[in-house]
Amino acid sequence: MPSPAYLECESISKRFPGVQALDGVSLSVPEGSVHALIGENGAGKSTLLKIMSGAYSPDAGTIRLAGTPRAFRGTADAFRAGVAIIYQELHLVPRMTVAENILLGHLPSRHGILDKRALRKAALDRLAELGEDIDPSARVESLPMAQRQMVEIAKALARDAKVIAFDEPTSSLSDREVERLLTVIRDLRGAGRAIVYVSHRLWEVFRVCDAATVFRDGKVAETFHSLDGVTQDDLVSRMVGRSISDVYGYAPRDLGAPVLEAEGVTGPGLAEPIDLALSAGEVVGLFGLVGAGRTELLKCLYGAVQRTGGHVTVGRRRVRGGSPEAAIKGGIAFCSEDRKREGIVPRRSVSDNINLSVRRSLARLGILRPGAENANAEEFVRQLDIRLASLRQLAGQLSGGNQQKALLARALSLPVKVLLLDEPTRGIDVGAKSEMYRIIGRLAGQGLGVVVASSELPEVMGISDRIVVMRQGRIAASVPRADATEEALLKLALPVAEGASDG
Prior knowledge:
Layout: E1 5-16, E2 19-30, E3 33-38, H1 45-52, E4 60-65, E5 68-70, H2 75-80, E6 83-86, H3 98-102, E7 109-110, E8 113-114, H4 116-129, H5 145-158, E9 163-167, H6 175-190, E10 194-198, H7 202-208, E11 211-216, E12 219-224, H8 232-240, H9 244-248, E13 258-266, E14 274-279, E15 283-287, H10 294-302, E16 309-314, E17 317-319, H11 324-330, E18 332-335, H12 339-342, H13 350-355, H14 359-362, H15 370-384, H16 400-412, E19 418-422, H17 430-445, E20 449-454, H18 457-463, E21 466-471, E22 474-480, H19 486-493
Parallel strand pairs: 3-10, 3-11, 6-9, 9-10, 15-20, 15-21, 18-19, 19-20
Antiparallel strand pairs: 1-2, 1-4, 4-5, 7-8, 11-12, 13-14, 13-16, 16-17, 21-22
């Protein structure tokens, strides 16, 4: 018999001007369970979290905790009631210490004076619950993102939160940090918390969640009370109304002559010389686990890190100089996996971001030509269907998927023959991913050679003509699409002991 629900959201509706964000949404989460909320951006997930947190009031519907109806008058009210939301943008005070952040709002005192010993002990106790060894006296601003997230969770535990919701918690974490977070979430489940988990990364949902509710257009498309026997295709089809094969949109293409030939390439992160060939019209998926050398290889090909050996040829011309400038001149474009730090300029306009690489060529006699820049930006906004308020909108205000398209527009503004994409769909929803896949397929159909580095097996299998598997800084195998299976590719990607045979 299923456990009674601790958190119940019944027939929740919320409307904003011109938008019905939630329409009669219901959700039940028992103690000691993890319930996923999945759906495209704009499907209503974040609105529901904000209602749970007290940031918004519902227009209709009821929230119950342990069977008792609750109407929160604000976020502090919800927090006192035991509801904590761990957002992507963490709500910590960077210049305060770890301990002060954990106990913020109820700092221990004696005779009106802060009791530092009690503060430190309380913080250590909460961190110990998470298995974390973080110095309580360290300033939060000095911590890496993964540890800041643990401080936020410890803060929730300090208020004895019974409901903890995670909003895209792994978007800024490494693979190892993701595994650590999932372990902590399982421990919280084991301690009887009711966990709500929002993520675009469906493999995480299957790893840590007991049930899932799929949102589409502000409504519940379906609730899976158990994930036993449920597939990724089941979830995706409910999210977007079509099957996963339609999401990838792969179509066979005629391949042309070799457009990229890398021979004996060596550099930081590569354990041996790398040979890689790419044909015009071909999409090569570059797959590997964390530390396999995918990003390092792309950066060596592009010249973002200095090659120590080997050479790169585009068409029949050697790319000389080993720098991004030389690569761009040779016809190679690169989009980094870290679009926030190595890609967009968030406080500049979309137009500025798109034209960043071609301003010199669009200028006349050294004078910028806003008309020419606007025309170039408008053309790529149209081609890539970048959704924005205007070309003057700040790039940092765009959704993740549209930021990625703006980066792609910048690359395509150049005369490109080879496109190197590092995790191009990281942190964007399934609908935006589908658009990106179709753009990649269209560009390949126009004769570009495209290399897509990805840690998501279904993705590389779904869009690629061929999959190159990297392992420990080496190429382990090159597998045609027709021969690729998840089991075979993962086996090739797994590390082997030094000197061990692959056989």
